[in-house]
Amino acid sequence: MYVLGISAFYHDAAAALLYNGQLIAAAQEERFTRKKHDAAFPSNAIAFCLKKAGIGLKDIDSIVFYEKPFLKFERLLETYYAFAPKGIASFLKAMPVWLNEKLFLKKIIRDELKKIDPAAAKQLNLLFAEHHLSHAASAFYPSPFEEAAILTIDGVGEWATTTICKGSNASISLLKQLNFPHSLGLLYSAFTYYLGFKVNSGEYKLMGLAPYGDPESLQTKEFIKKIKEHLITVFDDGGIFLHQSYFNYAVGLRMANDGKWESLFGFKRRAEEEELQQHHCNLALAIQQVTEEIVLKLVAHAQQITGAKKLCLAGGVALNCVANGKLQNSGLFDEIYIQPAGGDAGGAAGAAWAAYHLFKEQSRTVQLPDGMIGSYLGPSFTNDEILHTAESFHANFQLFTDEAALNTTVATLLNEGNVVGWFQGSMEYGPRALGNRSILADARNAAMQKKLNLKIKYREGFRPFAPAVLAEDAEQYFELKTSSPYMLLVQPVKKELQNPLPQNYHTLPLQEKLYFQRSSLPAVTHIDFSARIQTVHKETNPAFYNLLSAFKQQTGCSVLINTSFNVRGEPPVCTPAEAYQCFMRTEMDYLVMGNYLFAKKEQPAWKEDSNWKEKIKTD
Fold first, then answer.
1. 132: domain CATH number?
2. Residues 346-359 pLDDT 10s
3. Least crowded by CB within 10 Å, which of 129, 147, 180, 334?
């Protein structure tokens, strides 16, 4: 039985295909269209899933959309009614879109499917799952747990913003729900907006900025106090009440009431690209700490009402890996499983699983280590296809017939301070590069964070980089007591690897803090001595594991920087042509695709519009 899940029309459109309950293909539409967070109907992602399975639309038993548009429209109307006459401009802008498009999603979906196969589209069984059920299913069904509490937290689905469920075998039961407009995800996004980053894409920047705040400063403590006294009421069970006079997202065109926030916090909303000041960092730290407090309360309540010893997490807030690390350290649950595509993209897989197990009433077989196959679920390319791409660019390359020789060569290049694009196997599903569409460098090299940010990624210098480490060696470098295959947990670098901070550290300007060498792994040690860790396992990614092993054999160190293979404002590369283009546009030194090694200095001159960076939207 084939079940196809779809998410679309808000952000991070995606498609995911199940065969007899097993996820066999999944990808985001952005990877094919090159539009970051593309919300369009995922025609390309669907076509990929069908091609990978070797089937057509006629072979699909059911297609499932990840939310229910009529419930969402009901929430929209009731919200405008409750706030009337406020929000008339937003109402007039939203209604034509709903009346012309979103209320007729069933027809729109069928029309889009007709473009793939006109005959099959007429006969397809089209289902709709609730948004937060899709999230819950995406976390529980691929988890290695027979039974677990399930916590989903995001901005908003139809009505729900947070749910607590219990999963048992093939069933999911909803136990508790928090509804719009009270939303932890929207609260965090409001701060994302006020600090000058883009909502629905810049939240991870806010998380990365938070450690630059001074936890001991009176300003940070005052910000936390003001958030709790004026913006939000937090209850013991993790429920929250957002005081709407400070927000504008319910019926407005902006996230926050700028004037009231300026009066409250004492500074204006930061403009995009404006230089970051200490008060921006302190406010980022304040909301991160409040978020962590709320998440821990929610998790404690989930444990209390489910009695479960294991926890599954999904929703956009589940991608807050700093909060996840604090949750892991709390000991509230014995084991935690986090869906690697925790945002709306993962809703496609969740919708498919919900239909298969709940609507179709199919039994569940728990997979080990989990059902996400390392999240390596996207397109892959043969060496012949890579060769064809190389020839089309008249590229020069070295072909390796022996994998061990290739790994030894690349390890040497990394050890010499080179930056390497690493393009192997199936593309990752979800926001993280996990070793198949990655840019790699030596974590011991103190100059690497600056080089990667400014000369390769073309992004803000404060952004941290994640370490990839051999799973069996992780505890040598990090305070990590479990595996972290999906780069979703932040934990400290080992004390013995840390360097002492100067006494005046928190009073230093941001740039001076940024480039202070904090540990023997300086390029992956964030300003608070933390790291967002990926443990690399031979079972799920032997190619990346073998490269790390070769690097360890040469250097005694089994840690590399792993960042996504893209530049700022673009999705990670999908095809060999995109990888070569990114390689040539940036100051990357080498590129590895399959068994082919490309050296920058040996490539023909790259001819392209010199203003290409200006055409890419900031992220």
1. 3.30.420.40
2. 999 999 999 999 99
3. 334
Q: Does residue 551 share a domain with residue 408?
A: yes
* Greatest extent of the chain over all pairs of C-alpha atoms, in Å: 72
Which residue do the tokens 């840390």 mark?
498
Residues 456 and 544 reside in one and the same domain:
yes
Arithmetic mean of pLDDT over the chain = 92
Helix axes 383-392, 576-585, angle to 10 degrees: 50
Confidence of residue 505 (pLDDT cuts 50, 70, 90): confident
Cβ neighbours, 10 Å, residue 132:
29
CB 394 within 8 A of CB 310: no
State the residue range of the domain holding 52.
2-138+341-371
Instruction: State the pLDDT at residue 418.
Output: 96
**Does this model's pTM top 0.90?**
yes
Which DSSP string do the residues of 161-226 spell out, in sequence order? EEEEEEEETTEEEEEEEEETT--HHHHHHHHHHHTT--TTTSHHHHHHHGGGS-TTSHHHHHHHHH
Structure tokens at 571: 């999705």
In angstroms, rounded to a whole number, what is the distance separating the alpha carbons of residues 375 and 430? 7
> 15: burial class by Cβ within 10 Å (0-12, 13-18, 19+)?
buried
